[in-house]
């Protein structure tokens, strides 16, 4: 377990002092962080995060279903997802200079504004959207890139080793709550209205929530980074730093699964049931399991549990895919979703916390927090893009159930790859935060 310190995160505190920021209120918040609490800014960031995720959950799953209903092929949906992650990675890299040198909160707001634009485009294009699947994916990727780059940097600055697991637990808990209710509402509205009216309504609600998120974000403090942005920092880190090579491999393993499972599971539920309402019920049930799991992890999980907790999560997430060899039905998909909802917090909380602890190893690494956040995203998107490309290549030749099952099983081993890489980091990162006296 990481020891508690007076300042919570001394490296960041010293950097902010040197940049001339008034730390009178910040000092009080730092002391709270040192005792494992979440300050006002952390809670406000959680609220903005849940708005962004809820708006995406309300319509995100049904964008894929909408594309499927227009043209019942995997390729347009896979290309849409591929271009989303490609644009997201490029946006992280290109926007890094903005977040490093100027007000990063504007990047967060721009991400939410572009998300609103995305749903406006979907509304305008209607059924023609399938012809522009890859292009609208680029818009979605830009939105995600701006938002998550700014969010992750701010998250790093307002949390420390002592409350990072707590923040991630609450973030997952609130996201599960949004992911539980929003798709159910969408399924209910689409089922009780005509397809056109239902989809128009949920896309409109998402647009409004993103606009609301922009408004709420103005209550977050202006946080300005300092120094120059290094365009090649990520590549130099991979070449010189063994710890980051292992972290990159772990992130790629996580992304390998996420890229394909992010769209294929919801589609499988819809294809098996032909009902948006049933798909909404599916996410309601599985997210409820995830919500309970995140609550437990957020309340009782400790840094000393990370290694074996993550292994348990990875084993369940990878092993439960074998259900599809028995039968692909709503029941087996529901069992799969519940098992993943239960185990994913054990996998993700140690992963996120340890990588961000690695960023905060010392003052020098903390100064390069923007570049490290970009490197983190590169790892995730490298895995996502690889997984989707493998999926596109295989399904272009064969889409038989047995082929899809083996493909999903192969891609589903990503969490085990991630754990194998991460286990080398847990003890190193913990040892890098020396004990300080209160």
TrEMBL record:
It is found in: Cell membrane. The chain crosses the membrane at residues 44-68, 74-95, 107-126, 132-155, 167-186, 198-220, 246-273, 279-297, 309-328, 334-358, 378-397, 403-422. This is MFS transporter. CDD domains: MFS (cd06174). Pfam families: MFS_1. Keywords: Membrane, Transmembrane, Transmembrane helix. It is a multi-pass membrane protein. Its main location: membrane.
């Amino acid at each position: 377990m990481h020891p508690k310190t007076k300042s919570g995160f001394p490296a960041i505190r010293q950097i902010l002092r040197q940049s001339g920021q008034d730390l009178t209120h910040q000092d009080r918040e730092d002391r709270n962080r040192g005792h494992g609490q979440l300050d006002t800014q952390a809670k406000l960031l959680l609220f903005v995060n849940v708005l962004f995720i809820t708006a995406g959950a309300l319509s995100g799953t049904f964008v894929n279903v909408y594309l499927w209903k227009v043209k019942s092929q995997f390729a347009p949906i896979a290309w849409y997802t591929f271009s989303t992650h490609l644009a997201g990675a490029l946006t992280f890299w290109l926007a890094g200079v903005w977040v490093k040198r100027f007000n990063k909160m504007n990047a967060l707001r721009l991400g939410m504004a572009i998300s609103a634009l995305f749903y406006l485009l979907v509304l305008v294009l209607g059924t023609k959207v399938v012809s522009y699947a890859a292009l609208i994916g680029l818009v979605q990727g830009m939105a995600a890139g701006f938002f998550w780059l700014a969010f992750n940097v701010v998250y790093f600055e307002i949390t420390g080793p002592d409350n990072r697991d707590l923040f991630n637990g609450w973030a997952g808990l609130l996201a599960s709550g949004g992911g539980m209710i929003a798709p159910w509402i969408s399924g209910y509205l689409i089922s009780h209205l005509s397809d056109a009216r239902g989809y128009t309504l949920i896309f409109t609600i998402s647009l409004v929530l993103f606009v609301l998120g922009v408004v709420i974000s103005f209550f977050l403090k202006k946080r300005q980074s300092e120094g120059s942005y290094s365009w090649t920092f990520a590549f130099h880190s991979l070449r010189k730093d063994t710890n980051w090579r292992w972290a990159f491999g772990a992130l790629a393993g996580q992304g390998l699964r996420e890229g394909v499972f992010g769209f294929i599971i919801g589609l499988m539920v819809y294809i098996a049931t032909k009902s948006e309402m049933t798909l909404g019920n599916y996410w309601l049930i599985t997210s409820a399991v995830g919500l309970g799991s995140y609550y437990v992890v957020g309340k009782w999980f400790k840094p000393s549990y990370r290694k074996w907790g993550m292994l348990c999560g990875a084993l369940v997430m990878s092993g439960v895919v074998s259900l599809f060899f028995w039968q692909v039905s709503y029941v087996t998909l529901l069992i799969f979703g519940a098992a993943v909802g239960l185990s994913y917090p054990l996998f993700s909380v140690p992963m996120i916390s340890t990588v961000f602890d690695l960023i905060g190893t010392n003052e020098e690494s903390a100064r390069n927090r923007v570049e490290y956040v970009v490197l983190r995203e590169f790892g995730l998107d490298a895995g996502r893009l690889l997984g989707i490309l493998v999926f596109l290549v295989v399904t272009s030749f064969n889409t038989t159930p047995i082929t899809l099952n083996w493909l999903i099983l192969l891609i589903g081993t990503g969490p085990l790859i991630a754990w194998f890489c991460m286990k080398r980091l847990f003890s190193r990162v913990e040892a890098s935060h020396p004990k300080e006296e209160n």
